[in-house]
User: Which sequence fits this backbone?
């Protein structure tokens, strides 16, 4: 079984709809992340969480919100989807580092391909 | 904005040749990581090099880090068709920041 799972794997929706992407992990990691990848580009960080009570904005948080329901679950919501949010979305996890601003190896889910019409 | 920038953006080589990809970054880092992504899939971690290390090996992979030049290179030796993928560097500072990637094609 995969260590980091994402649901749904594909989603097509319309402008203005609310969408939730879910991520679950069995690695026991405290840190979880949501990234967005646009075609031909690298990943950009949307939100990250160092533990259940900690939520931080990343590089491109506008238009997105997150919820850390448990250590193993981190969901990403698009409150009112717009076409330029069409992208591939990845969840990732990592072990806690000894320092806040140092990051260990990240483990990625398979991604959710979201299309907003 | 992306901290790391890979060069070249695309690379095509024959099986058996070596592939070298470079990454430049702008600010100080704790470590630098390289990831691989097969088309449309999640990223897979390849190697992590800390800011006080200069070179690291893992199988056919060799990574160097020059903090004075703020640059790193990933060398894949004796490439195989299965190495075809995109390769990303990621710098660990306030966040883990990914570059735009190098698309590597290894022709059989």
Assistant:
């Amino acid at each position: 079984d995969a260590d980091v799972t994402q649901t749904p794997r594909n989603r097509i929706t319309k402008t203005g709809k609310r969408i939730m992407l879910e991520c679950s992990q069995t690695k026991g990691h405290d840190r979880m992340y949501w990234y967005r990848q646009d075609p031909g580009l690298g990943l950009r960080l949307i939100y990250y969480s160092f533990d259940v009570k900690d939520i931080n904005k990343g590089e491109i948080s506008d238009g997105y919100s997150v919820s850390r329901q448990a250590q193993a679950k981190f969901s990403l919501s698009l409150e009112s989807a717009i076409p330029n949010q069409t992208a591939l979305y990845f969840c990732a996890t990592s072990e806690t580092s000894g320092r806040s601003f140092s990051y260990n190896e990240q483990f990625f889910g398979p991604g959710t391909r979201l299309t907003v019409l | 904005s992306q901290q790391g920038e890979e060069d070249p953006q695309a690379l095509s080589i024959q099986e058996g040749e070596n592939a070298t990809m470079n990454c430049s970054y702008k600010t100080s880092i704790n470590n630098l990581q390289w990831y691989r992504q097969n088309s449309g899939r999640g990223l897979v971690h390849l190697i992590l090099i800390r800011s006080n290390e200069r070179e690291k090996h893992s199988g056919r992979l060799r990574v160097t880090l020059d903090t004075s030049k703020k640059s790193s290179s990933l060398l894949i030796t004796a490439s195989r068709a299965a190495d075809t993928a995109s390769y990303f560097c990621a710098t660990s500072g306030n966040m883990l920041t990914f570059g735009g990637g190098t698309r590597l094609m290894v022709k059989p």
